[in-house]
Design brief:
Layout lengths: L9 E6 L2 E7 L18 E3 L1 E3 L11 H8 L4 H6 L4 H9 L3 H17 L2 E7 L6 H15 L5 E8 L9 H18 L5 E5 L7 H13 L3 E6 L7 H8 L3 E4 L5 H9 L3 E4 L1 H7 L6 H7 L3 E3 L13 H11 L4 H7 L2 H6 L16 E4 L6 H4 L6 E6 L2 E4 L1
Parallel strand pairs: 4-5, 5-6, 6-7, 7-8, 8-9, 9-10, 10-11
Antiparallel strand pairs: 1-2, 3-12, 12-13, 13-14
Helix pairs in contact: 4-5, 5-6, 6-7, 9-11, 10-12, 12-13
């Protein structure tokens, strides 16, 4: 988590959208058609945001006001607000409108340094609406230079207990197989909590996902310990995300497995939850990633670099650890081996910072530390 290779007076060579050479400028022996002088500014890998919910309609301003008056997030959800209000608003717009609403959110993340962005569904709810959300996510991928990684999120169960099993059957018989067959999703995520899905139900869903060739992820240990983390490690999930309520014995479980621990400091800031134990996870030997959890209700955080900066303040990470958590580890949380590193042969995704010191990336608050983002060898923002 702290093993950074830092090269002073460095240069990179790019061809066909990829890095072909990385090293000290004085060691370069090749020729170049074009040379870009970055004036000794720091260059870091493009950031990878492994957890967003960027496709939604409506807002949660009433929920926000209610929480400031002392109403809890779970109480709002149980009363039909929260996620349910976003589901209703999302159902009222077209796929094209969903794309139009989501595009500026993706642009904001890219401007903040994200060159790879995971986007989850979850606000469609019905199988047909979830497939529409997946199509909107795929359409986004054609409109932005960032690499969009689509995830199918099985978010909340029906409010009627009698409809719960029928809904689960539809998810496993129709939604997941169709999403896999049409290549609309790379992974399936399940929200495991007291007010949402049990670990047993999640296992049924995730087993179906694996049977259809998809990766698996979980939202878990956000408010309570109901078995989601243990299930994720047992099933070889790419990541278990949130972990604000993670216990010491669960930290040891994560450290002993291969699953990435994805922490989301924007949620702690916005909801006032205890921060996920990032420092303890790393000290125990777990691999930690950082995401924005960009969503309308619990983390309206539109900056990936700010998520890293918050993880330093709230979760106890060092600057070195935060950079790794927001690059190569975040890529691993998405099952990607070709992102989050500046290395010959990989896509040329990198950031040019305003400062000559890379630590400015996780130091600045309020101002954008990113001067330029380059994706596949092309400058996309300044």
């Amino acid at each position: 988590m702290r093993e950074l290779l830092i090269i002073a007076h460095a240069a990179v060579a790019l061809a066909d959208g990829a890095f072909v050479w990385v090293g000290r400028e004085a060691d370069w022996r090749g020729n170049a058609e074009d040379v870009v002088d970055l004036h000794r500014r720091a260059v870091v890998p493009g950031l990878v945001d492994p957890h967003t919910h960027a496709v939604w309609a409506g807002d949660r301003l009433a929920d926000f006001e209610a929480r400031t008056a002392g109403v809890g997030y779970e109480s709002i959800l149980a009363a039909g607000g929260g996620i349910w209000s976003t589901i209703r608003a999302t159902a009222a717009v077209s796929e094209d409108q969903l794309v139009s609403l989501a595009r500026p959110r993706i642009d904001a993340l890219t401007s903040s340094g994200a060159t790879v962005i995971e986007v989850k569904t979850g606000y469609g709810f019905t199988p047909d609406a979830e497939l529409a959300s997946l199509r909107a996510i795929c359409a986004l991928g054609k409109l932005t230079p960032a690499r969009i990684v689509p995830t199918l999120l099985i978010h909340v169960p029906p409010q009627s207990v009698a409809e719960r099993d029928a809904y689960l059957s539809a998810v496993c018989a129709k939604l997941i197989p169709e999403a896999a067959e049409r290549k609309l999703a790379r992974a399936v995520d399940v929200f495991v909590e007291r007010e949402t899905w049990s670990a047993l139900e999640a296992e049924r869903i995730l087993t179906c996902a694996q049977r259809n060739g998809l990766g698996i992820k979980l939202h878990c240990e956000q408010f309570h310990n109901v078995g989601g983390l243990e299930l994720g490690v047992k099933m070889g999930a790419l990541s278990v995300d949130h972990l604000e309520a993670c216990r010491p014995d669960q930290i040891a479980t994560l450290a002993a497995g291969q699953t990435i621990a994805a922490i989301l400091p924007g949620v702690s800031l916005h909801l006032g939850l205890p921060a996920a134990p990032g420092r303890k996870l790393i000290d125990a030997g777990a691999a930690v990633a950082i995401g924005t959890d960009l969503n309308p209700g619990s983390s309206p955080l539109f900056s990936t670099s700010t998520a890293l900066a918050l993880a330093v303040r709230l979760n106890g990470l060092t600057p070195h650890e935060a950079l790794i958590a927001g690059t190569v580890n975040a890529a691993c949380a998405l099952g990607l081996s070709d992102a989050g590193r500046i290395e010959a042969g990989l896509p040329a995704d990198f950031l040019v910072l305003e400062s000559s010191d890379w630590r400015e990336l996780v130091y600045a608050l309020g101002a954008n530390p990113v001067r330029e983002a380059w994706i596949r060898g092309e400058k996309v923002s300044a």
